[in-house]
Amino acid sequence: MPDNLALAAQDLRLDVNLLDYLVLALYFLTVLGIGLVVRRTVHTSLDFFLSGRSLPAWVTGLAFLSANLGATEILGMAANGVQYGVQTVHYYWIGAVPAMVFLGVVMMPFYYRSKVHSVPDFLRRRFNGQTQLLNAITFALAQILIAGINLYALALVMGALLGWPLLLSIVVSAAIVLAYVVLGGLSSAIYNEVMQFFVILAGLVPVTVLGLIKVGGFSGLADKVRRSALGDPGLHAWAGTGSADTNPLGAHWIGIVLGLGFVLSFGYWTTNFAEVQRGLSARDTTAARLTPIVAAYPKLVIPAVTVIPGLVALVLFSDLGKPGGPQYNYAIPLLMGDLLPNGVLGVAVTGLLASFMAGMAANISGFNTVFTYDIWRSHVKKDRPDEYYLRLGRLATVGGVVLGIGTALIAAGFSNIMNYLQTLFSFFNAPLFATFIIGLFWRRMTAWAGFWGLLSGTVAAFGSYILFKAGVLDFGTELNATFWGAGTAFVVDALVSVAVTLATTPKPESELRGLVYGLSDASIADDTGAGAKAWYRSPAILGAGAVILAAALYIPFI
């Protein structure tokens, strides 16, 4: 461990006692118990990978949100709160909710009713096997890298808070996730994610409330932020974004709206199979459509337990992120050690642990499905018995966890893990969104346009980042570089897709029914029940409500 991290670990050590360890032990036992119970329901590969498509919307919706509440969300957004102030809310109100609603209203029907098992499988049907394989490989790589972020962050926090050695923290956490995902597959991950959602909130709410009390409430916090390094710009979301040099985020409003609000956001929420998989496990089309929309409402208020603690940490710990001081990522652990009594401390540590495990379980369950179905079954070993793929899925889970342990060390080079995550999204999600959205709405787009567009967009994203790191391109902050890198990937993908389409032959419309907008498949029966047609269960109405609330929440922070 680097010297500054070792010093930070000493400063963070918590005075935990037997009561705190009992809370942790109870959580571990509950997680494993859920895995053992759910194992009895797993008989086929569909049960293991997609929960037999049997879950209600409120379960899949909370799991959808919890799968995103990993280490990068809890530690990363609090770190952004310290580093960028109130502008961090862009990741929620423009960078998440609109895309979640779009997924539920527009895209989920295509995923669910076509009976695909994954996003790469949809690309196979819309384009060809080569596009499927390319996306499957890049997605699998991204999930292993992101699982490594969760593991590394967990290891650092457990080492700092409890004194556990780095390797022990990684191995113990990985082993527990491995156990319950291998036992119960996606159902085990989802039911644990629902529980973990409430555990995470139980850990973060006391940190937020006690932190606000200590700094004198919202007015006291605002006064202290104005006197901090961020100054008054740290309390506004849009002020100063007419120039990249006059706001803490270092981003122009065009980059925020198009780079984050459109390309990165829609690219992540609408095509990331680790999230979409929760919707595919729903019991009918309406439940699948409601999955991201149910998640959008609590997503609106998550900044209260991530960004606000980040601002509190900014004014309480002046050395955060400075040379010789702890990383921005330590904002939440520092507050826990400073504010929480024993017992509550155990709940908070458990909440952090739950967030890491929920995020990693989502990564691993997405990885094992794509590896088994979209790489192995589609391109290596076809037409094997179902038991073969069920067994392979469990082996892929083991392999994914082992690889995640290896990639955990890559995350060590980033002081703010959210910057690292956004960089990965600009590489893998932004070009995928371009390929997907053009192919969904433009039936003329050809099979090879899907492949070459996706490949060129991915290469362009890598090239943009390499030129930024080499000093050839100046985007200011690393985070702003990901916004522009994502935009570059989208534009390059789109241009190449159009060029290749004009030079190649499209698929006949008969092969595109149910896969593109405006070409329905009459052979697919409507599975919507009578109760699902009520106005208060309408995805469009509920989705519009979430978007309106997201816009309204900006008003106090303009």
From TrEMBL:
<feature type="transmembrane region" description="Helical">
    <location>
        <begin position="194"/>
        <end position="213"/>
    </location>
</feature>
<feature type="transmembrane region" description="Helical">
    <location>
        <begin position="250"/>
        <end position="269"/>
    </location>
</feature>
<feature type="transmembrane region" description="Helical">
    <location>
        <begin position="540"/>
        <end position="557"/>
    </location>
</feature>
<feature type="transmembrane region" description="Helical">
    <location>
        <begin position="91"/>
        <end position="112"/>
    </location>
</feature>
<keyword id="KW-1133">Transmembrane helix</keyword>
<dbReference type="InterPro" id="IPR038377">
    <property type="entry name" value="Na/Glc_symporter_sf"/>
</dbReference>
<dbReference type="InterPro" id="IPR018212">
    <property type="entry name" value="Na/solute_symporter_CS"/>
</dbReference>
<feature type="transmembrane region" description="Helical">
    <location>
        <begin position="58"/>
        <end position="79"/>
    </location>
</feature>
<feature type="transmembrane region" description="Helical">
    <location>
        <begin position="290"/>
        <end position="317"/>
    </location>
</feature>
<keyword id="KW-0472">Membrane</keyword>
<dbReference type="InterPro" id="IPR001734">
    <property type="entry name" value="Na/solute_symporter"/>
</dbReference>
<feature type="transmembrane region" description="Helical">
    <location>
        <begin position="449"/>
        <end position="468"/>
    </location>
</feature>
<dbReference type="Pfam" id="PF00474">
    <property type="entry name" value="SSF"/>
</dbReference>
<feature type="transmembrane region" description="Helical">
    <location>
        <begin position="483"/>
        <end position="503"/>
    </location>
</feature>
<feature type="transmembrane region" description="Helical">
    <location>
        <begin position="161"/>
        <end position="182"/>
    </location>
</feature>
<feature type="transmembrane region" description="Helical">
    <location>
        <begin position="392"/>
        <end position="414"/>
    </location>
</feature>
<feature type="transmembrane region" description="Helical">
    <location>
        <begin position="133"/>
        <end position="155"/>
    </location>
</feature>
<feature type="transmembrane region" description="Helical">
    <location>
        <begin position="21"/>
        <end position="38"/>
    </location>
</feature>
<keyword id="KW-0812">Transmembrane</keyword>
<dbReference type="GO" id="GO:0005886">
    <property type="term" value="C:plasma membrane"/>
</dbReference>
<feature type="transmembrane region" description="Helical">
    <location>
        <begin position="420"/>
        <end position="442"/>
    </location>
</feature>
<protein>
    <submittedName>
        <fullName>SSS family solute:Na+ symporter</fullName>
    </submittedName>
</protein>
<dbReference type="GO" id="GO:0005412">
    <property type="term" value="F:D-glucose:sodium symporter activity"/>
</dbReference>
<feature type="transmembrane region" description="Helical">
    <location>
        <begin position="344"/>
        <end position="371"/>
    </location>
</feature>
<comment type="similarity">
    <text>Belongs to the sodium:solute symporter (SSF) (TC 2.A.21) family.</text>
</comment>
